[in-house]
Amino acid sequence: MADHVRSGAVLRVESGDHICALVDGRTQRDAVLRAFLGEGLAAGHNCLVGMEEQEPWAAVRSILPTLDLERVQAGGQLTVLGAGDPQFSPDYFSVPAMLTFWSDVIAEAHDRGYDFSRLAAEARWWSPQLPGSDALVEYEISLNAYAERRPAAILCVYDFEEYGWMLVDLVKTHPRVLIDDVEFTNQYPIGPDRAATDAEPRGRTDPDGGTFSGVRPQGPDGGTGLASRPDAYIQRWLGPLIAHDVEYGGELVRTLATYLRSADDMNMTAQRLSIHPSSLRYRLYNIRRLTGLDLRDPGSRLGLMRATALWLRRAGS
Questions:
Q1: What pTM does this model have?
Q2: Complete domains list, the chain, with CATH
Q3: By percentage, how much of the chain surpasses pLDDT 70?
Q4: Cα(168)–Cα(199) distance, rounded to whole angstroms?
Q5: Helix (H, G, I), strand (E, B) or coil at 182
């Protein structure tokens, strides 16, 4: 189960996909875009990407150095939008208008002979074009039903440092989530018939006191601190499980990671771990007991997803 998105890897996509990639910095952003766009261009798909840079084509050349960008640009296979190419306005916000924009992109690509489109955009490109965070969540919710009916895959890229405070709501709007190169399946993606705030995260108490949801700024510099202190983040969320596994030769951390990546599907998780479902239930009981966390709570869930993704990277899984 190695759905990792490292340099040179391929990000599996299907028609109707709506994927959220949570990244720490530009290097991770570039790796995700390299996988998403590179495979799509090689497969003959139409591709569009919206980026925060003022010179986005220079950024794409850096991300895809071996690609003949002039050819794909001239043939209309790749469209690149930057900070100087806004498509919307916070003064005239309309979800239908935004969805119409994407429909036009897909329709025009079809007219040029492309049967499938890959549409990628980082939040730093489109969020300045929206009137606020509520509008952003409303837009992401609408994309779920929209994407299901289109011959396209949509990738939304969010940086933890800038959007950490609202990622609990945003993750709930995406069926697929990538964190630190590791893919998770979201069992509870919110559709247009549910409010994005219908499950307010309760968070947890961190070892130093105070509420720690896993996505709100904690460091003295006001940032998440994850890029410089991943080991501390892992220990804060998974410390009791790691200690248990070391002492008893257990696999609680791997069990938790597999469970979260399997959309809480007991049978799938047990099959992937090669254990009986009753053994899985006992492991999950111990995970809840040792961490004191409700795995259904969105805030706790996101914190654990992020921590297990980091742990998997260090474990080489």
A1: 0.82
A2: 18-185 (3.40.50.300), 230-315 (1.10.10.2840)
A3: 83
A4: 10
A5: strand
